[in-house]
Specification:
The chain is α/β, with parallel strands linked by helices. It has helices at 18-33, 54-64, 80-92, 103-112, 164-167, 182-192, 208-218, 253-263, 274-288; strands spanning 5-8, 37-42, 74-75, 96-99, 140-143, 150-154, 158-162, 172-174, 197-201, 224-228. Strand 6 (150-154) and strand 7 form a beta hairpin. Helix 6 crosses helix 7 (208-218). It is elongated and about 70 Å long. The structure holds glutamic acid. The site of glutamic acid has 7 residues, from loops.
Length: 290
């Protein structure tokens, strides 16, 4: 496919584990199946959560698995002027506004309205600062979410609908600590890097409508989305460091890749070179997700 550009965008909160390798492999297979470019972007905007050296370790692990990016990796922490410029444009357009509310303020306002938390404990912002700060000082910047349902089609999961205004509310673009939020950084970077196809774990599916709204507000093209299955931990939740995912054992990269491919429903041949087996897996992927 001409012009296909995909990416793997790990947060360097630790080395890759079995679950994150699945996301990496899915995005690589999709890019290769479509004759596209595959990029790696280190998403280190949330600095307090980043682990020093995890970025280098992730790149080493990907290389050990034969997953080589087609361009030098980029680090979000070096791209903050881009996020600031995007925020400035949203503010100028009236699509973003300063917010003085602490988490406690939001909880109290929701409680007063008889509304408690919904979506995974996420607080739906009650809109306190939508029409001004009323003398309080700004802490964060929020996106003014338009009314209406966002509809989009995932290449694996089909049609999705989300009423972002009511299910999520006006979400944060720049946090009280000055760091840019994932939602803004990911949209700016996907657009700036010309990403045409986003392939990532299914845990991020609920973020996609927020990102689509930001793309619309910033006039960015909407990439196509495919959310890949997750590897679940023993407790039935997404495998993560918090529920016991151990770093990948790469003494046998091919075995680790075979397990990741199996999680995607793709067989990785034990025969021939790893490069040939991966190329064959990409063809199988391409038949499933043309
Ligand atoms: N950095 C995010 C994560 O590791 C993924 C972002 C994305 O693929 O859009 O969960």
């Amino acid at each position: 496919m001409k012009g296909y550009r995909g990416r793997f965008a790990p947060s360097p909160t630790g080395p890759l584990h079995a679950g994150s390798l699945v996301a990496a492999l899915a995005s690589w297979l999709d890019a290769r199946a479509h004759g596209g470019q595959w990029l790696v972007r280190i998403e280190d905007t949330d600095r307090p959560r980043c682990v020093p050296g995890a970025d280098r370790e992730i790149l080493r692990q990907l290389a050990a698995c034969g997953l080589q990016p087609d361009e030098p990796p980029v680090w979000q922490s070096r791209r903050e002027p881009l996020y600031q410029a995007a925020l400035d444009r949203l503010v100028a357009a009236g699509a973003a506004y300063p917010c003085a509310c602490s988490r406690k303020d939001i909880e109290l306002a929701l409680h007063a309205k008889g509304r408690e938390r919904t979506r995974h404990g996420l607080l739906v912002y009650p809109g306190t600062c939508r029409d001004g700060l009323h003398g309080r000082s700004a802490r964060a910047w929020r996106f003014r979410v338009p009314e209406g349902t966002v509809a989009w089609t995932d290449r694996r999961l089909g049609v999705h609908l989300q009423d972002v205004a009511h299910e999520v509310g006006d979400f944060v673009l720049q946090r009280a600590d000055g760091l840019f939020a994932y939602q803004l950084a990911v949209v700016v970077d996907d657009a700036d890097q010309g990403i045409t196809h986003v392939v990532r774990g299914e845990d991020l599916v609920g973020n996609t409508p927020r990102q689509i709204l930001l793309q619309r507000a910033l006039g960015c093209a909407q990439p196509s989305y495919l959310h890949a299955p997750l590897v679940l931990g023993a407790n039935g939740e997404k495998l993560s460091k918090q529920n016991g995912a151990t770093p990948l054992d790469l003494t046998d990269p091919r075995a680790a890749l075979a397990r990741a491919a199996a999680a995607l429903g793709i067989a990785l041949s034990p025969h021939g070179t790893l490069a040939d087996a991966l190329a064959q897996a990409a063809r199988a992927w391409g038949e499933r997700f043309p």
